[in-house]
Design goal:
single chain, alpha/beta, Rossmann fold, Hypothetical Protein, Haloacid Dehalogenase-like Hydrolase, Chain: A, domain 2, 2 domains, 8-stranded mixed beta sheet, 5-stranded antiparallel beta sheet, 10 helices, 13 strands, 21% strand, Haloacid dehalogenase
Length: 267
């Protein structure tokens, strides 16, 4: 089985997809290889993926917290972030930065994205959600991911702030980031990440780590790169991913996923 991240890995810079990567997915299937996308994206950012990639199978989204059917856009199962843990995490982060802002991704079709009055989304949204507070966000048990964006008073880069957040949030939630150019961290229920999500999916389908190859580019990909029997980093990957990977392939703009799949097919 081949597990691929999307942004910065399968998708090119700018969010387009190369015909080489699309063709490689088809070759993988023709050679009996299962494929799955494993991404930090929420369900609301997955609607266009089947048409873009030609892949209508399954995807693990929200950093492994939720398994969805790309064709029907329905949730198969999800690991929710408990309200108590989410509120405790928010309080711990406010101790690091009193002006930190929050947002949550929820497993529901309508109003699946909630923000506070200070939060600035990474990507433009068509309809801006009505601002609320973090207590209201966790008034539901459908939260799959908590996002936190530090204020301008924080002078750390994304890696430095992630390390500080990991120390503050030990034993509360899993925390990562997916873009070293954007100061934002992403949190899931404790023990839920791309690695554990992929392991759960693989074991349910009869695959061990030795049967799985994974490819990615950012710190949120690290757990699955470490868990998979064969891990690859695209050339544009974060240094942590390059250090953990078993092999390196060309960048996302040079269809590195296609190169990786062809190596697997011919090995």
């Amino acid at each position: 089985m081949v597990a691929s991240d999307l942004d910065g890995t399968f998708l090119q810079t700018g969010g387009t997809v190369s015909p080489e990567n699309v063709a490689a997915i088809a070759r993988a299937h023709a050679n009996g290889l299962e494929t799955i996308f494993v991404t930090g994206r929420p369900t609301r950012w997955m609607r266009q993926i089947p048409d873009m990639t030609g892949h209508e199978g399954l995807a693990l989204v929200c950093n492994g917290a939720l398994l969805m059917d790309l064709k029907t856009q329905e949730t198969i199962y999800a690991d929710f972030l408990p309200s108590e843990a989410g509120l405790k995490a928010a309080k711990a982060l406010q101790a690091l930065d009193p002006d930190i802002s929050f947002a949550v991704e929820l497993d529901r079709h309508d109003d699946s994205f909630m923000v506070d009055d200070k939060y600035r989304p990474r990507w433009e949204v068509k309809t801006s959600p009505q601002p609320t507070d973090v207590e209201t966000m966790f008034g539901t048990d459908l939260v799959v991911k908590l996002l936190a964006r530090p204020s301008d008073r924080v002078q750390q880069n994304a890696d430095e702030f992630l390390i500080a957040a990991q120390q503050a949030l030990t034993g509360i939630v899993d925390v990562t980031h997916s873009n070293f150019l954007d100061l934002m961290i992403e949190m899931s229920a404790l023990g839920v990440n791309k690695g554990t999500g992929l392991e759960r999916f693989a074991s349910k389908n009869g695959f061990s780590a030795a049967d799985v190859a994974a490819i990615g580019d950012m710190p949120n990909d690290l757990p699955m790169i470490q868990w998979a029997g064969r891990g690859a980093a695209v050339d544009n990957a974060h240094e942590w991913i390059k250090a953990a990977a078993d092999e390196h392939v060309p960048s996302n703009d040079d269809h590195g996923v296609a190169v990786f799949i062809d190596r697997i097919i011919t090995s």
